Every structure is written in structure tokens, then in C-alpha cells.
Q: What sequence folds into this?
């Protein structure tokens, strides 16, 4: 038994090496952000800062604040609305089989995997013709293309609930919407957390829709950060601080609600 | 079983989503196909019939050849790297070590971050400058006397795209680990115990019992990683901008459509992308739904 335990301890060597690999970018992002402008030099990139300074973050925030705001304004309604639609669809597909329901589920699901390049030209044409441009258009795109994954997650959850739950309510005379509102919604909170996190993260991190559907006053954070990084005038230390600001909202969600984040990831692989 | 009223109501309630998917997914794909068969080049739409001209032009286009080569290299490195790394991380974390939760959180956190952030940070880590201007990982390697590791990263001729694939492995391997770990946890312990009592070595248990049981997960991982790599776009843009040696179909599509206004050709690229993803995805959805029903 002892030799076995000893053998297992060797596993910490590769595990710690991997931890360093995963944290390396975070380390550089963090230490660079806290250095003062005077300390910034690519040659000393790996050194710890001499003191704590916030110059880089202040500079990056001054540049990125409008786009952080844009991101929040677009992501919050997008996540809320697509989650509600997904819950309703999932409920109907799991518990209210009508003719064609078995066909509709894969029909919706396919939308989750398409490369968005294949719909982007019509999407731009459509949005421009319909006059839905900028952030509302971007939010709408995230809502519609979010329907497949939100429907999938809720359908799998509702399908796992015992049918007796509904039967009992039906005997009591509850109709469909009553069952949804009084029985399923109250126990759907964990699934809502999973789906909201998933939608928040993917809409926050999206670049393709954002770069094509928004102009420069409405850029969300990914587009603004990419342009900041591509500019010759803004130095790398400010880019590093900006990267951390751009990653912070989703990282905080991950740190505090990681369990739900993981469940969303596992659901996204179709396995539920 | 159900009242008719409820049946109509459920159809009415699901209709908005179904109609939205019908238009925004299937309708738009059809529209893109139509554009890909047109001569549209310029600001104003032009749907005059071009037949397969745009597709034929692409296959004799040297830039598209670079794209296909890069997609193959990227897919190969990214898929194999993520699956191997993800699998071994999952096996290590399945040994019941102390600190498992900590390691798991560390390996998975890049999934919460955007490709743009990953790209911007790794660009500075993979700085290819040499000599006195050396920095990033090359500087780190050199100061640790690991000079043989110093390389030109994404500026390496032909294989530069593999450096980008490495950053994608950094981002996605934790996801694969999570999938495998969930799979390992679902294998009943009695199975391993029984094999151990029969005198099977740990290695044999993995090869003959555990790996076969994990096949569905490997399949999922292959599909997820494969279709991600066909669509790779933001990560490359953030690391290197739009440089020809690191070009991929998604970047070509974007540039030729929205910078070059060559809509016909851009649409053709997008349809080729869609078809390559569809041959992976459609059988996968059918397979998953079928096995799901059996369970």
C-alpha cells in the first residue's frame, strides 16, 4: 500500500508542470498589468513587479470602458431571452410530444454546429434591410443562434424528470402552461444558471458576429481588444492589462460558478 | 392523453423558435448557396448566374491551397494534441489524488476566456524576435539554458500554424479532460476491481477495459475539436492579424467578402466550410439521438 501511494505521488510532477503551462499566460498578464510604466521592458517580462502600480489597468480601462459597457448591454438581454426561449422549447419537446416533435429537435440542433460564415452574408443583408443594426442586431443574432444549445440543455433536463410529476398535476386539472409555470419553472433554476452562464460566456467571447455586425462606437470588448492589440501606438503592457479586463467577467463567473459552467460544457457535447 | 387545446398551444409556443431557425439557419444557408453561384462582386447585390465558377476558381487558387494545407496541419496538431493531453490529464486526476479539484479548475479555466484574449497574450509569449530583442517564451527558455526550445513560433515557414494550434490546445484541452473525467467516473469501480483480482495489470485494464468504454467520448471529442478547427478564425486574427502564411478558409472568406466585396467567392468558401462541417455533424447528431433514445 505504501509503495502504491508513493508511486501516485510522482503524478504531481506532470500535474505541476501542466499547471505552470496553463498559468503562464495568466502570470504574464497579471505581473505586467501591475508594473509601472517605468518598469515595462520586454526583456524583463518574466520578472515580478517592484511595487504594485495600476497605471496599465487605468490606461486600458480608459480605452476599453465604452466597449465593456457595450458588451454588457448586448450580452445580458441576449442571455436572458435565449434562455427563456430554450426553456419553453425544451419543455414542449420533452413533455408535450406533438406530431413532428422528433423531427423538430434535430432540426433545431443542427443550427448549433454550423460555421457562422455560411449565414453571415445573408445575415448582414437582412439586418441592414430590416434596419436592425449595431448592438440590437448583435443581441438578436446571439439570441437566435443560441436557441439550439439552450433548447438542448433544457430538453435534456426536462426529459430526465419523471413523467408522474406532470400526470399528478394534470389530474388536478392543471393545463399545460400551469404545469410549466407552477411545477417545472421552480425546479429549473439550476438549469437556468447553466444556460445563462453558457450564453453569457459565448456571447461575451464572440468575435465573428461582433466584428461584422457592429461599427466602432458599438464594438463589444473582443473587437475593441483586438484592435487595440493590432495598433502600433498602444504598448504591450496596456494590451496585457486590457486582456485581463476583457477576460475578467467570464473568469469571475468561472471562479464562482464553475460547477455550472462545467455542466454547460458537458451539455454542449450533446451528451447532457 | 393530452387535451387538444394544449397540443395547439404547444405548437404555437414553439413556432417562433422553429420559424427563426428555419429562416436564420436553413433559409440563410440557401441564400448563401445562391450567392455562391452568382457573379456578385461589389457593393450592390448581383445575382446573375455564374454556375460553379466561384468554386472552380477556388480550387485553382494558390491562396486556397495554403488554406487547405493550414487547415490540415492545424486540425492534426490540435485534435491529436488536445485528445492526448485531455485524456492523460483525466487519467491522472482520476487517481484520487489530493488537490484534484484545484488541478481540474486550473486546466479548465481557459475555456472561460475568449480566443481574442488567448491570442493577444500568446502573441507576446510567442514573440519570434531574436538576439538582444528576444522576449517571451524564447527568453524564458534561453535563461533556463533550454536553447534548443527557442524557435520562431508562428513565423516558422509552413509549420507556423502549428504554433497557433498549440494555443488552441491550451484553450480546449481542459474541456476534453472534463469529458474524459466524466466518462471515467461513470465506469463502475467493480469492473476494475474484478480485473485486478483476475491479475490484470493497470496498463492492461486501461487498454482492454477502460479505453473501449470511453470510445463514445473520444468520438464526441473528435467531432467537437474537428468542427472547431474547421472554423478557426479569431485566434489566428488575434495572434497574427491577416497574414498569408497563416491563412485559413474562415479568414479568406471574411477578407474577400467584407474587405474585397467579392461576395460570390466568399459565399463559396463559406459553403465549402459548411459542407465539411456537415459531413461530421449530421451523422453525429443522428448517432447521439439514437443512442439517447436507447438509454
A:
Amino acid at each position: 500500500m505504501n509503495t502504491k501511494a508513493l508511486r501516485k505521488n510522482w503524478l504531481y510532477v506532470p500535474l505541476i508542470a501542466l499547471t505552470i503551462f496553463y498559468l503562464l499566460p495568466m502570470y504574464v498578464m497579471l505581473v505586467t498589468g501591475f508594473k509601472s510604466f517605468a518598469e515595462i521592458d520586454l526583456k524583463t517580462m518574466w520578472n515580478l513587479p517592484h511595487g504594485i502600480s495600476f497605471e496599465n489597468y487605468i490606461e486600458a480601462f480608459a480605452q476599453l470602458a465604452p466597449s465593456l459597457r457595450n458588451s454588457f448591454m448586448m450580452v445580458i438581454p441576449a442571455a436572458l431571452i435565449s434562455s427563456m426561449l430554450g426553456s419553453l422549447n425544451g419543455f414542449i419537446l420533452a413533455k408535450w410530444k406533438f406530431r413532428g416533435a422528433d423531427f423538430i429537435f434535430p432540426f433545431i440542433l443542427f443550427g448549433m454546429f454550423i460555421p457562422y460564415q455560411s449565414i453571415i452574408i445573408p445575415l448582414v443583408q437582412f439586418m441592414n434591410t430590416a434596419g436592425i443594426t449595431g448592438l440590437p442586431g448583435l443581441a438578436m443574432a446571439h439570441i437566435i443562434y443560441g436557441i439550439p444549445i439552450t433548447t438542448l440543455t433544457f430538453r435534456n433536463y426536462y426529459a430526465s424528470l419523471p413523467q408522474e410529476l406532470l400526470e399528478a398535476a394534470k389530474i388536478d386539472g392543471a393545463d399545460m402552461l400551469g404545469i410549466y409555470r407552477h411545477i417545472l419553472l421552480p425546479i429549473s433554476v439550476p438549469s437556468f444558471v447553466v444556460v445563462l452562464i453558457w450564453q453569457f460566456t459565448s456571447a461575451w467571447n464572440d468575435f465573428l458576429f461582433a466584428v461584422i455586425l457592429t461599427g466602432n462606437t458599438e464594438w463589444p470588448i473582443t473587437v475593441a481588444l483586438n484592435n487595440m492589440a493590432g495598433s502600433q501606438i498602444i504598448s504591450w503592457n496596456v494590451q496585457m492589462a486590457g486582456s485581463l479586463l476583457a477576460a475578467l467577467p467570464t473568469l469571475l463567473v468561472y471562479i464562482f460558478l464553475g460547477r455550472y459552467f462545467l455542466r454547460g460544457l458537458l451539455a454542449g457535447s450533446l451528451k447532457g | 392523453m393530452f387535451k387538444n387545446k394544449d397540443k395547439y398551444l404547444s405548437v404555437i409556443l414553439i413556432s417562433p423558435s422553429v420559424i427563426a431557425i428555419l429562416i436564420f439557419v436553413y433559409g440563410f444557408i440557401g441564400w448563401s448557396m445562391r450567392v455562391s453561384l452568382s457573379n456578385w462582386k461589389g457593393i450592390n447585390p448581383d445575382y446573375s448566374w455564374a454556375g460553379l465558377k466561384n468554386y472552380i476558381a477556388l480550387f485553382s487558387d494558390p491562396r486556397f491551397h495554403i488554406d487547405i494545407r493550414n487547415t490540415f496541419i492545424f486540425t492534426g496538431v490540435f485534435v491529436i494534441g488536445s485528445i492526448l493531453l485531455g485524456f492523460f490529464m483525466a487519467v491522472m486526476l482520476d487517481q484520487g489524488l489530493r488537490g484534484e479539484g484545484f488541478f481540474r479548475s486550473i486546466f479548465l479555466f481557459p475555456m472561460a476566456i475568449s480566443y481574442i484574449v488567448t491570442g493577444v497574450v500568446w502573441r507576446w509569449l510567442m514573440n519570434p524576435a531574436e538576439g538582444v530583442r528576444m522576449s517571451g517564451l524564447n527568453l524564458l527558455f534561453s535563461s533556463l539554458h533550454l536553447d534548443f526550445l527557442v524557435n520562431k513560433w508562428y513565423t516558422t515557414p509552413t509549420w507556423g500554424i502549428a504554433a497557433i494550434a498549440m494555443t488552441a490546445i491550451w484553450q480546449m484541452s481542459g474541456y476534453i479532460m472534463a469529458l474524459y473525467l466524466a466518462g471515467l467516473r461513470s465506469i463502475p469501480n467493480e469492473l476494475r476491481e474484478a480485473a485486478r483480482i483476475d491479475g490484470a495489470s493497470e496498463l492492461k485494464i486501461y487498454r482492454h477495459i477502460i479505453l473501449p468504454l470511453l470510445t463514445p467520448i473520444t468520438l464526441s471529442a473528435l467531432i467537437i475539436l474537428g468542427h472547431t478547427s474547421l472554423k478557426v478564425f479569431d485566434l489566428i486574427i488575434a495572434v497574427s492579424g491577416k497574414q498569408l502564411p497563416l491563412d485559413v478558409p474562415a479568414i479568406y472568406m471574411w477578407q474577400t467578402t467584407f474587405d474585397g466585396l467579392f461576395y460570390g467567392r466568399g459565399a463559396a468558401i463559406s459553403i465549402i466550410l459548411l459542407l465539411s462541417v456537415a459531413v461530421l455533424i449530421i451523422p453525429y447528431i443522428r448517432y447521439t439521438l439514437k443512442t439517447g433514445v436507447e438509454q
About this structure: The mean pLDDT of chain A is 91. The two ends of chain A are 38 Å apart (CA to CA). Chain A has twelve helices and no strands.
